[in-house]
Amino acid sequence: MLMLRLTVNGTVREVDAEPDTPLLWVLREQVGLTGTKYGCGVAACGACTVHIDGVATRSCSLPVSEVKAGQNILTIEGLSPDSSHALQKAWLDHDVPQCGYCQSGQLMAAAALLAANPKPTDDEIAAEMTNICRCGTYNRVRAAIRQAAGVTG
Predict the structure, then answer these.
(1) Which of 30, 43, 112, 142 is the 20 to 30 Å CA partner of 130?
(2) H or E element: which one contains 5?
(3) PROSITE patterns from the xrefs (predicted)?
(4) Can you name the CATH fold of 86-149?
């Protein structure tokens, strides 16, 4: 077991974990933040997406021991404490969620996209949004991202 100090949503958390424990499970089971979801376990679906120092990262396959001291981990719970983030509002405006399972990962991937590229084209959205939605709401996801970005057309 390792004693780790993780900065999660701006708060330093001390956790004990085996070095190979995926960050996802540390966040869910030890830190108590269950908004980040388990989908596939092989970093393919994106339900587990969090930000590490602003970069969208699939947490299900990242050993917690690879998170460096001082790196900031942002989960869906830290995106906005009152759901006022432009993406969260756009998600509601466009009725993006169906079953909702993938939505926290979708929102985190979209937030990283807009942080890096505030006015993405449809092609750029398609290239960056690689999360899987089994309900198939991809057109709504794109429309919500465009709304949050203030992109029309």
Answers:
(1) 30
(2) strand 2-8
(3) 2FE2S_FER_1, 2FE2S_FER_2
(4) DNA polymerase; domain 1 (1.10.150)
